[in-house]
């Protein structure tokens, strides 16, 4: 590829029929709002737009989609939205076709087009209740059980620090660990309180 330079990337435009939500998509496509998230998308702007649409009753369902650099922001948008609205969530992965165009830098060479499949994240969030039979269904407020105390009590790091210190081995009655004598700290002949031997002292 030394005689080529990379040109533009052309991503295939998805339609609503390409979304992987055949078992939970609203009956009519106009019943949901489709938000495309990219790497340069400002999360606060798109979330406020989706919140306004739900509050006004314009839509009952929102779908977030992002690929490449937009995957992380897609997750952020969904996490922020479900803090303000009790939604049912379904998260699924799909693939999108991207064409890479390579332009020749020498005469007699033709343009090269490489087609790649990149993973795309889709998150469906609905105000209406969805059936329990849907694979990967997450009900409203299910992610907050741990912070409410349901799972935090069993975690060892959730105990107070003074309780963890009580279980440390070798602790004395005062709660402080016993000191260990380090080898090599005392000089020869001075261990255990013994005086220095006078064998090598010069005779008077």
From TrEMBL:
Cell inner membrane among keywords: no
Location(s) in or outside the cell: Nucleus
One term of GO molecular function: RNA binding
Keyword Secreted among record annotations: no
Domain of life: Eukaryota
Keyword terms, alphabetized: Nucleus
Primary localization class, coarse: nucleus
Residue ranges of domain DNA/RNA-binding protein Alba-like in the record: 34-97
GO CC terms of this entry: nucleus; ribonuclease MRP complex
Family: Belongs to the histone-like Alba family.
Name of the protein described by the UniProt record: Ribonuclease P protein subunit p25-like protein
Source organism (scientific name): Drosophila mauritiana (Fruit fly)
């Amino acid at each position: 590829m030394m005689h080529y330079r990379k040109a533009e990337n052309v991503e295939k435009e998805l339609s609503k029929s390409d979304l992987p939500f055949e078992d939970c998509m609203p009956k009519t496509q106009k019943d949901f709002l489709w938000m495309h998230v990219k790497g340069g998308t400002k999360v606060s702007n798109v979330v406020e737009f989706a919140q306004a649409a739900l509050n006004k009753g314009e839509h009952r369902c929102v779908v977030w989609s992002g690929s490449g650099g937009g995957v992380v922001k897609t997750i952020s948008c969904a996490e922020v939205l479900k803090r303000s609205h009790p939604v049912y969530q379904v998260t699924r992965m799909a693939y999108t076709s991207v064409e890479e165009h390579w332009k020749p830098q020498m005469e007699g060479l033709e343009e090269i087009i490489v087609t790649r499949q990149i993973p795309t994240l889709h998150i469906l969030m609905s105000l209406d209740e969805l059936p329990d039979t849907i694979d990967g269904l997450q009900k409203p407020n299910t992610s907050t059980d741990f912070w409410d105390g349901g799972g935090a009590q069993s975690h060892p790091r959730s105990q107070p620090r003074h309780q963890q210190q009580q279980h440390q081995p070798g602790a004395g009655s005062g709660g402080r660990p016993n000191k260990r004598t380090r080898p090599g700290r005392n000089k020869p002949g001075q261990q255990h309180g013994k005086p220095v031997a006078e064998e090598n002292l010069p005779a008077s």
